[in-house]
Amino acid sequence: MPIFISYSHKDKKFVDQLAMQLVHQNVHIWLDRWELSVGDSIIDKIQEAADGASALLVILSKASVESEWCKKELSAGFLRELEEKRVVVLPIMLEDCAVPLFARGKMYADFRSDFDEGLTAVVDGIAKVTSPSLGRFKEPEYHTDWSIDYGDVDGRVAIVLNYVQIPLNQPYTCLTRIDIFGSVVASSIFEKEKQASGVDRAKLYVLGLLSDTLIAKGGLKPRLADEREQVYQFEIKGSSSGEEYSVRIGARRIGENTGRDVLVNTSGIISETYRHMKEVLKTPKSAR
């Protein structure tokens, strides 16, 4: 999914400079003057692009905060944040101006004195909201850091998910590792999907099979009573004949023993990972 740039055309020179720098950083951006063609419905195209973007870069300037069009794009971005419960709006401070109310509590990339410093902040911010294979889930009492990687073991695809759940007010941490090994047929399907759509979509496909399987089983919530690893092993199947995956899930906790059992919602964090990846990799409507 691209990064949508919301700006006033009075700031065209700065936006062109920023856009070119982001392209050089391999960031996929959506800029109206680059994407719209003669005869396009401007409102429809911009609406579709903004709805399908990974994030909105909002240029804050004297001209943009007075623009009704920019105000609508900013409001739409904040509405998505509420609905999707994730960061969508990334503000950029181009010059001193009256910052819109909803944006006042956000950290922004500051371009007022140093372009390179502002660019570094933008690139770092984009990386946090657009990576399909790394992430963090935040809950009121804890946060979960996760990653999904893949490799090859004796010619068979291997996918590894790692989760670290860190309570905010408890002296322990929960670790979960999930290993998925594909059969020969499954590995061939993975490779074909990787070649056709990219490795992240190939990983997404397998993760979807795992998520659906756990939901069908009624979920998985290991109870961790001590330092010993709780292990679950089972098979999942795809739609093709011979498409099978061996799954091993291991969950443990480290740190102090509080004398209380800890319940880990493993199926929940897998479903959340799948939702995140699906959202990041979603194809904008205008590109379908």
Features:
38% helix; 5-stranded parallel sheet; Rossmann fold; globular; single chain; 288 residues; 6-stranded antiparallel sheet; 8 helices; alpha/beta; 2 domains; disordered C terminus
Question: What this model shows, in words?
Answer:
The chain is an alpha/beta fold. The chain folds into 2 domains: 3-130, Toll/interleukin-1 receptor homology (TIR) domain (Rossmann fold); 134-285, no CATH class. The protein contains 8 helices and 13 strands. The protein has helices at residues 12-24, 32-35, 42-52, 68-84, 115-130, 184-197, 199-216, 266-280, and strands at 3-6, 29-30, 55-60, 89-93, 109-110, 134-138, 142-153, 156-167, 172-182, 223-224, 230-237, 244-255, 262-263. The chain has a 6-stranded antiparallel β-sheet with strand order 6-7-8-9-12-11. A 5-stranded parallel β-sheet has the order 2-1-3-4-5. Strands 10-13 form a two-stranded antiparallel sheet. β7 (142-153) and β8 (156-167) form a beta hairpin. α7 packs antiparallel against α8 (266-280). The termini are close together. 28% of the residues are buried.
